[in-house]
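Hi R.,

Here's the chain you asked about this morning:
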Amino acid sequence: MTDKKLGFDTLKVRAGYDSREHNYAVAVPIYQTASYDLGSVERGEKLFGMEEAGYLYTRIGNPTVAVLEQRLAALDKGTGAVAVASGMAAVTYALLNLAEGGGRILTTPRLYGGTFDALQHLYPKFGVHVDFVENSDDPEAFRRSIGPDTKAILIESISNPNSTVLDIEAIAEAAHDNGIPLVIDNTFGTPYLFDSFANGADIVIYSATKAIGGHGTTLGGVILENGKFDWANGKFPHFEEPQYLLREAENGRERSILEVFPEAPFTARVRLSYLAYFGASLGPFDAFLLLQGTETLSERISKQVANALRIVDYLQQHDRVSWVSHPAAEGSPYKALADKYFPKGAGSIFTFGFKGSEEQSRTFLNAVELFSYHANVGDARSLIINSPKTTHGELNPEEQAAAGITPETIRLSIGLEDAEDLIQDLEQAFAKAFVETLV
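And here is the predicted structure, written out as tokens:
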């Protein structure tokens, strides 16, 4: 059976792997090798000339890593994928591949703090600039902000940290009407909760460190494409440039990335340029661990979403909570969009407003016993953190305000524990925070 005919849960366990090609090993083997025997001079020439598919050096390709890439491509119904060493490497390689030689990325302030800070302060040093849409809830604001040098629109499917949802299809339409791709960081959404390509994405990014791995053990990132965007529309001349590396064996004619990799030019170019020469490679053992996480993705996410809804309901009724930012929260302005784009639930990561002093907030965070206080999300364990001081601490007060991050914001990532135990943990932490400051 072809991958396209199989369901999500079958693909997450089996896609991209044929045991007959790996000595009939039931589990995906870990190819812990730096390089590969070429076999013969003749085969080596074919491999380096890209006349024959195969592995040369683990920095640009590894059989264990390839299974992860193919499996995630199958889950997202993509045509190409490239795995890298971290989520930020995935963001960086994707955006540089888009705006190479100079250009602008149009985005929203509602981004992970590291992404926001890099776009604002690091990318301009490489000729890549950013424009932020102030009213991100208005798709027409994106359309109005597209300029002649805009190379892409970047959004998160579910924003970090406040779990907001944009009108993704309308933003995609604005991008495509102007000949530029929509890039979606689907880390919070995961391929289980959100079908990025079906809703207008052209490039999808994951921090596989989070829910895909799911156990807080392994860094990784993935870039995917669906082969539908027209990279020869004149806005991306670097995709049309003939390259000596891609020359024909018979006559030496130099070819472009579009000629050699018509189904997956974007990820192929990332692999042959940025991954090969910047070198943020995903190791085979890390790929193996991420594959282990992928096998239980839907089961974990379903339980975490159910737990999150229980805790959202608890927090909304708590007198020490000023607000809860999750699409399922009562009165959320994002409920209709979440129902449309996330029928299985809008994730398990969200924020709430702590109604108390800064000292009480510190006491509360120090008092939790089941929640782990550290800067990760999507873990099997439940996590808690004060985002304005940590994950979004790079943003100054004005930037935090633009992103909707207020000083009282606390972010939760809900894990697989018993929901009632998590509620009791929060309850005792609230009690300590307010009793101890009164004494």
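One quick note: The chain has a mean pLDDT of 95.

Cheers,
M.
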